Amino acid sequence: MRRLFAVATxxxxxxxxxxxxxxxxSPAEEAPQVVASGEPRYVAAEVARHDRAxxxxxxxxxxxxxxxxxxxxxxxRPDVIExxxxxxxxEAYRSKMRGRAHSPYADGLLPGYRIGVAAVxxxxxx
Length: 126
Prior knowledge:
Elements: H1 2-25, E1 33-34, E2 40-42, H2 44-48, E3 51-52, E4 55-60, E5 63-66, H3 78-82, E6 87-88, H4 90-95, H5 104-109, E7 114-118
Parallel strand pairs: 2-7, 4-6
Antiparallel strand pairs: 1-2, 3-4, 4-5, 5-7
């Protein structure tokens, strides 16, 4: 009985130590920083995690948008816009990859999907 108690106690503390070590070694989830305007600031790695049609964030001109709800309404083929999920998409938005700008209507829709601003590492430079 004494041996069983010792094994159970050692197993418990071994499990606690393993959980603590796993938590300590795993990369910390970066919480978005909040800028002076009160908006969250997202680094490129955070935006990149939202790279699917079911969870689609994009950076356009330094602003981060969650366009997940908009994707089914986008007038073009889904793969056209899904390719930019999780990425810096300013040039693609400005040119639609054909040298044509989006309409003022599209520009007016964007603020409704704004969730924050991009950190410097997330914004491409021309």
